[in-house]
Amino acid sequence: MKNIISKVILGSFVVGAVGMASAQKIDAKAKKILDDITANYNSKKNSYFKFSFGSGLNDQVTKTEPGIYYSAGDKYKLKIMDTEQIFDGNKIYNISTDDMEVTIAKPNGNSTLFSPINYLSTYRNDYNVTYNGKKMVNGVNADFIKLTPVKSNGIKYVYLFVDSVKKQMVKLEQHGNNKDVAVIAIKEYKENQDLDPNMFVFDKNKFKNYVITEL
């Protein structure tokens, strides 16, 4: 479980930047739903949610762990188990408490940072989008939207389950070509909170005994 979580976090849900918008097929109903949710998120000063992170093989989730996520603009903080990731708007800090290691890197143009929000934006260039009707998810009669890569990027498809009334994500499933699966099921939302001004700041002084590697 730890290896899978590390792979997902350190990879930041990496997907290839494929472009080729002319080859896309985007369902109009799905597009409106995704655009409405994106606008709702972007209108908030900050957002917070608790979630469960599930992972497994052969498209079956076998392990789940709780996680928390804070975001404000393009900055965020994510924590799953003993692994934490901070993006301060410039660099990504991957912190492993168990290994006492910190890896620092700048995001590159071929990656998408961890966040359901990024799927709401990258779909415009990278995915074919279809509306698959309604499905009950965690007690919500959610709209079911399927994203399929325009060009091979290691992902077979992504399922988004959306509460269109509240304009919020309910669940995200990422299925890989190798049959790996990663699932984020969102449990609790909070918005426009008074956050610590240092929420998205990495303080080296707190990690003096850690091995810090800057890529």
UniProtKB/TrEMBL annotation:
Domain of life: Bacteria
Signal sequence coordinates: 1-23
InterPro entries: LolA/LolB/LppX (IPR029046), OM_lipoprot_carrier_LolA-like (IPR004564)
Record's protein name: Outer membrane lipoprotein carrier protein LolA
Pfam family, one: LolA
Organism: Chryseobacterium rhizosphaerae
Residue spans crossing the bilayer: none
Record key words, sorted: Lipoprotein, Signal
